[in-house]
Design brief:
The protein has helices at 2-20, 37-53, 69-72, 87-91; strands at residues 26-28, 34-36, 59-61, 77-85, 98-105. With 107 residues, it is α+β, with helices and mostly antiparallel strands. The strands form 2 sheets. It has a 3-stranded mixed sheet. It has a two-stranded antiparallel sheet with strand order 1-2.
């Protein structure tokens, strides 16, 4: 599984860097945090990739709608994802951003 995860992260990072070198648009989410095409492209790669590794493990991503707590509280395992952590830094082009993926178990 580790090799598959590394591949997903590398592909997501490639999507992010492809956008980084362009004149991208910045939208605002409901909480006024920035959202870019890089967030969405990386999210797609990660969610699709994790679902392919094991469709039985749900994925919660910052860029996707999360199921209600009444649904999530029964999960023993799930993926917790921020496809582009540091979007503000990405927008400011200071290089201080990352891809975050965690497998939460019994948490």
């Amino acid at each position: 599984m580790l090799e598959e995860l590394i591949d997903i992260v590398v592909r997501a990072g490639s999507e992010i860097l492809d956008v980084y070198g362009t004149a991208f648009d910045v939208e605002s989410k409901s909480d006024d945090s920035p959202l870019t095409e890089a967030d969405l492209r990386a999210n797609r790669v990660i969610v699709d990739g994790l679902s392919a590794i094991d469709p039985a493990i749900p994925v919660i991503s910052e860029e996707s709608d999360a199921p209600s707590y009444s649904v999530r509280r029964t999960w023993r395992r799930y993926w917790l994802v921020d496809p582009l952590d540091g979007t503000r830094e990405f927008v400011n082009r200071n290089g201080e951003f990352t891809v975050n993926i965690a497998l939460i178990e019994d948490g």
